[in-house]
Amino acid sequence: xxxxxxxxxxxxxxxxxxxxxxxxxxxxxxxxxxxxxxxxxxxxxxxxxxxxxxxxxxxxxxxxxxxxxxxxxxxxxxxxxxxxxxxxxxxxxxxxxxxxxxxxxxxxxxxxxxxxxxxxxxxxxxxxxxxxxxxxxxxxxxxxxxxxxxxxxxxxxxxxxxxxxxxxxxxxxxxxxxxxxxxxxxxxxxxxxxxxxxxxxxxxxxxxxxxxxxxxxxxxxxxxxxxxxxxxxxxxxxxxxxxxxxxxxxxx
Length: 252
Hints:
Layout: E1 6-9, E2 12-15, H1 26-29, E3 37-45, H2 50-69, E4 71-82, E5 85-96, H3 98-107, E6 109-115, E7 119-127, E8 162-170, H4 175-194, E9 197-207, E10 210-225, E11 228-236, E12 241-249
Antiparallel strand pairs: 1-2, 3-7, 4-5, 4-10, 6-7, 8-12, 9-10, 11-12
Helix pairs in contact: 2-3
């Protein structure tokens, strides 16, 4: 397993995280779209054994297709305050369907793969009825690099019948984890627009003849999304932020 390079400078250890280079293919940033098939982009660390690298990237691609088909979002945020002090806690979990995962794993087809110095990128496809694709797919050119920040980072798209979410992640040790985290955050943003419950409690606490106001605020999300698709990704090289735009069609 490739470990991040470490450089010792005056007693400080600098960890060099992987970044996206010029030779990253276009389909990583803008995955293909089809009415009859699902496409999944997978990312894996570069190992000495290329087959092992592809295996990890393929598994990640399968997981991304599974998340698009169906994903459960569980989230809770609590804000507790008393007097002048405040404490906040939050947690989020995503749940995928193991049956769907295994169906995709068994039947998906690798369309293309690209190796870089640190990572391998794999593009897979499977029909929407979970069968192996037979037609040829053109994934687009390699070496694609978005230099200008997309407008959707500041202002998500507005389209009738759809909800959009933008997620952001900092750099992680493994590139796939940064992209997966930003996609999870984007889906959480969509879930907040669709189904979020609020609870609150306010009161006064008496202690040593002093009265302090205390409160408790809670936001809870428990929702399953079906058909939440990755539309586009963007990497901000200067800030080292990973952005993902997710589209979700509202059921009529």
